[in-house]
Batch of 2 targets.
Target 1
Amino acid sequence: RSARSTPSTRLPSTRKARAKTTKKIVLKLQCQSCKHYSQRAIKRCKHFEIGGDKKGKGTSLF
């Protein structure tokens, strides 16, 4: 009898690629004189807050 592979090795892998869990934070800045918009990317994070409560010494907002 020839060696046969088990069904688990013949089937394709069931591991599914997942989407990203964080989003890139982008600030939309407007020029005061010409009303032109420019976007500045900061970095990836799950939670972002501008102008929130002040944290302790040496901590960042994002």
Target 2
Amino acid sequence: MAKLREKMQKYLQLFLTNKQFTLLCTLILALFPYTSWLAVVVIAFITLRNGWMNGLTILLPVALVYFACSLVGMPAVGAFVNMLALFFPCYFAACVLRMMTNWQAVFGLFFLMIALTSIFVQLLAPDFVVAQFLYLENFVKETQTDASVTKLLSDLSNINQTVVASYAFGLQILSIFFSATMSLMAARSLQSRLFNIGGFKQEMLSFRATKISIAVFIILLIAATRLNLIAMTLLPTVIVYFLLAGLSISASFVNRKNSRLLLLLIVPLILAPFVSAPFYTILGLFDSVFNLRFYKLKPRNRG
């Protein structure tokens, strides 16, 4: 294990010092579908440590090669959108995290980018969201034979299609930025292993939703109940933001008892997501108001 760690640190140092080696490795990773996310991690790692310009000199050629290869299987517009969605959110977030050393600023940037994307789509292509949803719905109906899926689709058809499509589009955009968040977290973890051991873990355990986010959540919730399409698109993002804050406070409490149990916090989200996700979200909401980390469990008096 120690030898593996030494080799990993050696390669990470090589990424930081040898630009040609970094560019070659990142290009190779970007060419394959299941390793392209690793290319994003490398670019974010370089940006976090060496600055935005060094990250950009790796990003631009890799993104252009990825775009050119994507043209083989899809139209130019689709290839361009895929390129933007894969590389640029994580790169900009890495720039912000390096400059401000604040994950709140990162999520603020993501929220702004999602909001601008939603407004852009609603203004320039208002029918795109519904058309995309109908296409996906028909595709699922033709390919799925599961009775539960068919029943779910029939239930959704009884609801306003614009409402369902807006929430679905919000989840689709959220998945892009969630992927960017995971890549950025991986890059930050690598940086921490080299230069600030334990720093990344402390950042994750101390992450807390802001009070401003509660006001944003309430405004979006009210607007969504009044069928505002942009609010419906943004609402899933804010909910996941509070969910991550709830995971952080839960991890903070578990870490006080036994740090080896931290990964078990993810298990309920996999086995019982409809129960655990609301729980973590509500916990994140409460933590943003009361800062639950200051409350420590008092030992019982014996005697």
